[in-house]
Amino acid sequence: MSGCEPGESVGAFLCQAGQVLRAAAVEAPRLEARLLLAHAMGCRQEDLLRDPRAPVGPEAQQRFRAALSARARHVPMAHLIGSAGFWTLDLLSDPSTLIPRADTETLVELALDTFPDRSSVTRLLDLGTGTGALLLACLAEFPGAFGVGVDRNPRAAALARANAARNGLADRAALLAGDWADALSGRFDLILSNPPYIESSSIPGLMPEVALHEPALALDGGADGLDAYRALASALPRLLAAGGKAVLELGQGQQAPVEAIMRGAGLRPLGCREDLGGVPRALLLGAC
């Protein structure tokens, strides 16, 4: 970006930024250039497209150059702009948590289909809550429910509390730091979890945005990727209310082994929902 001088146009910045991101093998470089420049200028992408000859002020140029350099090093976009969309929510995001992904919305869809009577869910639990994405999305859809979210990382729990406040759900959510369900009592109508499920040896081979910039605690599922499911299996039977259901996110190829773990703990697999890529992603469980 050394060729960009103060007062140069939006169009020139976008053109050069697209070239930088393309050279760095960033997917959708033109789109990402617009996202970064709109964030630096405090405007909408549509505004950039509407007036490509508009000048970019010195302060916006400085912010943009710094963000562009970081994105070319594969720092995730959500970390650079500080937020990510999930379901109907806008969530704060930082390196202490996984960035919410569209695939995880499959769990919300399955939960809503499982409980078409929205008043039937009054107590929600999200184990490994991260940003609070699953818990808060379901609280928004089950208006009479109160939810508890637990994360082993205190920074993640604090971020989830901030997201509850940001989305007007703070009075219906308790976000706690803890080791899975160890400190919990009582029973819940709906239990959600997106646990770490990547095999330890596979993490270095993930795309750099994930392997280098997302927390290993939220990725590493142990040697076979199933450690967290074993922990969940030991807790879910005592936490599910009568008629309650659990919805767990799965990694690719994990449906059969996770179902076997859950059956061994006295839980009954009730179906699995595929994500938009055709991967079995959301496993529905009930008590036997």
UniProtKB/TrEMBL annotation:
> Residues that bind substrate, according to the entry?
194-197
Q: Which domain of life is it from?
A: Bacteria
Q: What keywords appear on the UniProt entry?
A: Methyltransferase, S-adenosyl-L-methionine, Transferase
For the Methyltransferase small domain, which residue ranges apply?
Answer: 110-200
Keyword Hydrolase belongs to the record:
no
Q: Name one GO molecular function term.
A: peptide chain release factor N(5)-glutamine methyltransferase activity
What Pfam families does the database record attribute to this sequence?
MTS (PF05175), PrmC_N (PF17827)
Transmembrane segments annotated in the record for this chain: none
The free-text function statement in the UniProt record for this protein reads: Methylates the class 1 translation termination release factors RF1/PrfA and RF2/PrfB on the glutamine residue of the universally conserved GGQ motif.
Q: What family does this belong to?
A: Belongs to the protein N5-glutamine methyltransferase family. PrmC subfamily.
Q: What is this protein called?
A: Release factor glutamine methyltransferase
Its source organism is Pararoseomonas baculiformis
